[in-house]
Amino acid sequence: MTFRGRRAFRFLALLILATQAAFLGLGVRPAAAAGPDAVVTDAGCTTNSLGRSDDGSSGQVPLGFPVNFFGTTYSGMFVNNNGDVTFGSAYSGFSGLNLAAFGNPIVAVAFFDVDTRAPATTPVSHGPITYAGRPAYCVNWVNVGYFSNGADRLNSSQLILVDRSETGAGNFDLVMNYDRLAYEPAGGLTVGYSSGTATYVHPGSGVPGALVDANTTTGLIRNSGGSGHLGRYVYQVRGGQPTPPGGQSIDFPAPGDVTYGGAPFPVSPTATSGLPVTLTAAGACTVAASTVTVTAVGTCTLTANQPGDGTYTAAAPVTRTFQVTKAPVSVSLAGLAQTYDGTARAVTATTDPDPGNGVMAVTYDGSALPPTAAGSYPVLGVYTSPTHDGTAAGTLVVARAAQTIAFPSFSARRYGDNALRLEASADSGLPVRYDTTGPCTASGGTLTVTGVGQCTVTASQAGDANHTAATPVARSFAIAKGAVTISLDGLSQVYDQASRPVTATVEPAGAGAASITYDGSATPPTAAGTYRVVATVDGPRYQGSLTATLTIAPAAQAIEFADLAAATFGDAPRALTARASSGLPVTFTATGSCEVRTAAVAYVRGGACVVTAHQAGDANRAAATAVARSVDVARAVQSVTLTAPRRLTVGGAADTVAATSNAGLPVSLTASGGCTLSAALLAPQHAGTCTVTAAQPGDDSWLPAAAATATTPVSPGTATLHVTGLAQVADGAPHAAVASTAPTGLTGVTVTYDGLTTAPSAAGTFRVVAALDNPDWVAVPVVARLSLTQPAAAPVTDPATGARPAPAPGAALSTVGGRPAAVTLAPAAGGGVTLTGDGFTAAVAAIGADSTRQPLDTDGRLVVDRAHQVSVSMTGFAPKTRTDVWLFSDPVLIGSETTDEHGAVEARLAVPASLPTGQHALQVNGVTATGAQRSVSVGLLLVDEPAVTPAVTVPAGADRRPAVAAPAPAVDADPLAALPEYIPAAHADAVVTTTVAGFTLLAITAGAGSVAVAGGTSSRGASPTSRKAGKIVSGSAKHFKEQWEGTGRGDRSFTWRLLPGGWLDKRSLALPQRIAPVSPLLARILTDGSYLRAMLGGAWWAMPAAGAVLGAVTAVRSHGSPLPSAGLMLALVVLGIFDAVAGLAAAATFAAIVAVSGGIGSTDSLRLLLGVCALWFAIALLAGVVRPFRRPTPRRGLDWWTRGADVLIASLMGGWAVQKSIGALNGLAGHELPLAGSANRIALAALTAIATRIVLESVAGWAYPERLRAVRPEKLPKSGKLQRLAAIGLRAVLFVFVTVAFLGTPWQLWVGTALFIVPQVLSVYEDAFPNRPQLFRFLPKRIIKTVFMMLVGTLSGLALAWLLDDPAARVVNGFVLLSLPGLAFSLIELFGREGDEREQSWPRELAGGAVVAVGIAAALGVFS
């Protein structure tokens, strides 16, 4: 303890000394507790003394032997009074010893502020001793007191350094002995050692109460380490490294490598403690006890373990490895002598022994493929297996194979036959040689006959490298005379009065001439007729004959007949003229469309006409070939006349059709299109056009008439729609209205229910539209109302028993659609019970008139007395449906309530006086969004008198709806999964309304403008001149700067001096200016709370601190879910309105905890997290864009009107933005959120907070002008174009990420995104566009712009609803349509982005008030 510290305790020390002296004078000494006698009593331990001292130390004392402590060898040490020894230098520290940070070698035996100045204490002593027969050095802290002069609780500890150089140079033991530890400082005793970098801290060190004697579990005298003696702890220091008490090591000699199949062998690991060592094996061996058995080839790993016992801790395992090599086998080769056969000749290789688990590889002259050809080949067989290997070598000899020749015999041949193909073959496949004798030759495998006689052919094969020579084979045959071929010419001739000889040709040439006879005579005949002709050849090598018939025919004649001229049906007959070459008379015949009349042709009809001329011949002349001449007699032309109706109507009467031909031929009629034709009556069938075609195909005399067509329009028929079944009872199944038509059976009838095609199943009233989409019929759509009423109230039975549920108090039962459903019941904080199940939460409690809630009784039962009402709140029902609450045994309906727009219900219901006391069941019945009946029953106990247990006061607001505790989400589960799914198409009107609000907010926050923060008037009370619209994305907002002469009252007050704030003031002024070029939005957030920093100074830090704490509490209370409770959501929205930095701190803390807790289980939960967090810091920025939070102090009535308008408009805009944003969270999360039911309440709180902030801003501007100048920059620098473009890209990504939750990914999403990006990109290059100050004056700005955009969006939404019945189409197409007004307005603003505003006047302000009223009406849905 330092001198300064002692002076502070001087009086207390004197008082203690006086007290101790009094005790000593009376002979009273502090009692010593009985210890374990761990401290060694040896006179050497008291050889040297530090004397009575506080914080003293010895000089360096020699140990008498060297010690190696963490790699450094020391021969001496320093003994310190406060329970420690050090190496290198003394240490007089007395408290707060942190071994890990000490920095020098130290051994702390029992470190605390030791004080031995009191007479009842013993000074610290030390000296050399012999311990266990070894040199040692002893230090005693026996019966030592504590600062200051404390002697009522004495401690006794001892340190002995024992020389263990027999185990290695510098090795020693640290023996720490403890007999009594009655005192400890406030932070506990410190025990351990440190080298300055490496540290050991004894368990319990620095923990109050952990090591003192009073702790019978972890007290140092209650345990031991490495000694077996209570209070004694032995630290072995080997090689400079201390081992904690009881440490041991294992010595394990490494075994050498072995061969597979060898005998098991022993190993001998030992522990330094002498305790038995256990072995485990891995890899190619097993171990049993200390015997190792090889099981495979490879690496064997042995691990030695010693788990320790009561004295020794577990030793570090020691691992040894060795290799197991393969065993040899003998390889034998068989089949080394073989004969060539054209196939591969493989050798067989075998092993002895055969391990059965290997692969034999045989190579032949280095190749793995066995040889085929004859010859000698070196062979090598190699066997390889996981456990064995071996080789063998030899020579494979493949001998040449014998071969034979197959040679078919020849049949007899004739001279002149074709050459013969020789077909002898050797079975070796080798080519065969041919040799001949006689009148024949062989060449190239072809035998040629050269004469008549005997021919012999011999086939032979001489062999090759793989075959021996074959035995020759001879074949002989006879050759006879060759046959000749005789051909006769002139066998058919015409009589001409001369002889008619025949000519003979003989082949082959040179075979000789042929002799010819005619009916046996060699003289050729002359007369016409037929004759037998014989031709004969007989030579030395050829012979043959041929018989034929010679015919002499009569002479021919011909007719000359000219072509017929063209003709048409109806022409006059024409004369015929023809001549025969013989001069004989010619006759005529006619066929087809004409006839012969006295050597003339007459045309009797249209078509082909053929006239033929004939001459029959005589005795000397043959009949002439008839000659035919033809002509195509053309048909006459005809025409058709058609008459058809002018118009037909589907469902109307048929009309007649008439058609005639000028040829008098019958006309055929056909109809196509929307009609049918029968018996000249045209009947309408389908709307469109009807085409009638009249055709006359003609006949033999008349051509087909040109088709005549007539087109008659067919109008759709008029039908009538009827809708019935409009009053039904909901039972969980879909209930459709019945639409019929007159006439009946028409197709294309569609029925929608509130714009959806799915028939509703839940109770309610639905707008039914029946329409006819039929191409042939039209009908006026019928609009009606389908009323699905809930069934009459009746209690629900238990599906398991068929009786009414009778759960015991504290138990519950749930059913959905008559089937059991899971339900969890738990006590609610503040009284009553909560019930949770699939898709619902509920709370039931007994609540009094004074808002007190009755707690559960001691058995955990729900108790209700007659002085309390039953409070019921529940979610999970269909919106705007009836819920019934029953009490029974005998059922009593105690109330019916209608659910709100979110399907939640709450009620306080009285207990009927007629209900007897005792056990009852409370049952809540209603229908879900799908129409199924949901029933929840909970048991309760009805008593006459109030319970003895004190009632719990219900927090403010909780009497409306008792809080239902949501179960903590499962780890790694999506916290939103238990909530009902939100389907945008089922809430099309709400989604369109949200889209209108979103694009309105985008339009008013994305206008062109500067980044001025405090820009505005230049003097107090002056009107604005040149202005630009503010926007959040550029970091700008509208505040009017006031310059005061001097300071305000607040500047001179103490409010901002309570805590130091100079550093904060400098950062508030400088940091936003540095950040603005990179992140204008963040710079805007940092300047948002400047008015609070001006008024509070350093105390402002409480705001972001409160935000961080509230964000953490919200995350914890929501169990890591991104969905906060309504109360905390309200608090954080209000906090962010007062200071965006506080809201941002809350959002960052909340988001970090939710992310770490696994609450972001899906993209839906991520979108919900972003939406929730944005609400905590963006509302104040948004409201500040619409109206300024701070203006000059009003001086006239018009100024007060304007200031009031600021409060009204900014507050309403902020509240409206909060309401719409919370409503949009359902779509972002993809689920129906309970938070949506509190949107109005949170919006009202936001409205109030904004109004309050405007008041505070006004106070700050009036009272703290100098402070505002000190903490708020007047202007923020612009960001560069690159940064702005990057920011636009990031916003586009966020825009798509959020919008996907409502639309999915249709083409409308990408078109709308492009429309979102285009004006922002153009605003980056706004300086390239001309500015028209006159246009600026006439453009709507601020609230007028807001109302204008709201009205345009609302009217566009109404147009969508009128045009599109399909809700899904309305949602996706509305996204594009509703973005167009904002796009157009942004583009116009580029050309009128700045200029002079009009002067204030009462007419303009009153007109602005009317516009605000219209905006309020639009926000309330008046125009919807």
Automatic annotation (TrEMBL):
<feature type="region of interest" description="Disordered">
    <location>
        <begin position="792"/>
        <end position="811"/>
    </location>
</feature>
<feature type="transmembrane region" description="Helical">
    <location>
        <begin position="1370"/>
        <end position="1392"/>
    </location>
</feature>
<feature type="transmembrane region" description="Helical">
    <location>
        <begin position="1346"/>
        <end position="1364"/>
    </location>
</feature>
<feature type="transmembrane region" description="Helical">
    <location>
        <begin position="1285"/>
        <end position="1303"/>
    </location>
</feature>
<keyword id="KW-0812">Transmembrane</keyword>
<feature type="domain" description="MBG">
    <location>
        <begin position="719"/>
        <end position="777"/>
    </location>
</feature>
<keyword id="KW-1133">Transmembrane helix</keyword>
<feature type="domain" description="MBG">
    <location>
        <begin position="330"/>
        <end position="401"/>
    </location>
</feature>
<feature type="domain" description="MBG">
    <location>
        <begin position="485"/>
        <end position="555"/>
    </location>
</feature>
<feature type="transmembrane region" description="Helical">
    <location>
        <begin position="1404"/>
        <end position="1423"/>
    </location>
</feature>
<keyword id="KW-0732">Signal</keyword>
<feature type="signal peptide">
    <location>
        <begin position="1"/>
        <end position="33"/>
    </location>
</feature>
<protein>
    <recommendedName>
        <fullName>MBG domain-containing protein</fullName>
    </recommendedName>
</protein>
<feature type="transmembrane region" description="Helical">
    <location>
        <begin position="1168"/>
        <end position="1186"/>
    </location>
</feature>
<feature type="transmembrane region" description="Helical">
    <location>
        <begin position="1098"/>
        <end position="1116"/>
    </location>
</feature>
<feature type="compositionally biased region" description="Low complexity">
    <location>
        <begin position="799"/>
        <end position="811"/>
    </location>
</feature>
<feature type="transmembrane region" description="Helical">
    <location>
        <begin position="1128"/>
        <end position="1156"/>
    </location>
</feature>
<keyword id="KW-0472">Membrane</keyword>
<dbReference type="InterPro" id="IPR043772">
    <property type="entry name" value="MBG_3"/>
</dbReference>
<dbReference type="Pfam" id="PF18887">
    <property type="entry name" value="MBG_3"/>
</dbReference>
